[in-house]
Amino acid sequence: MLSDCQSNAMRLKTKDIPAIRLKFMQMQGNVCLLCNIPLENNNPCLDHDHQTGRIRGVLCGNCNGIEGKIFNLSRRARRQRTSAEFIASVLSYWEAAEMYPHDLWHPMHRTPDEKRVLRNKRARLKRKRLTSK
User: Fold this and answer.
1) Fold of 8-80
2) Residue-level pLDDT, tens digit, the chain, 133 residues
């Protein structure tokens, strides 16, 4: 039996998905709603809410997979909040960190130049070991 919120909704048949996906793609300008890349040739996926079943739009395959992972991870971390509230907190945290950065660096962080120097050092050592055999 359908709940009240689903009673007026139409459950799609699997055969209808290509036409509905195309209709949604046209309505959203043929771009992914998350990353804005063209959906043609980027595995367009008809995205839906896994709790309600309602169609939300069309995402590229990459964003569709990432969105699902974000949602699932946020459910584990949300504590007494909704997943959306937790994700909003993460975004606020990142924005505050960008606006008011600390002058302290994590000891494991390496700049691109430091990574390049380390890569070159390892390559030299490897070449040296190979030539000394």
Assistant:
1) His-Me finger endonuclease fold (3.40.1800)
2) 344 455 567 889 999 999 999 999 999 999 999 999 999 989 999 999 988 899 999 999 999 999 999 999 998 887 889 989 999 999 999 999 999 988 888 999 999 999 999 999 999 999 988 888 7
Q: Under the phi-then-psi rule, with left for phi > 0, alpha for psi from -120 to 50, and beta for the rest, what region is 6?
A: alpha
Write down the domain spans for the chain: 8-80
Report DSSP letters for 45-83, one per residue: EEEE-TTT--EEEEE-HHHHHHHHHHHHHHHHH-TTS-H
Look up the pTM and report it. Answer: 0.70
Specify burial of residue 20 (Cβ count, 10 A radius: 0-12, 13-18, 19+). middle
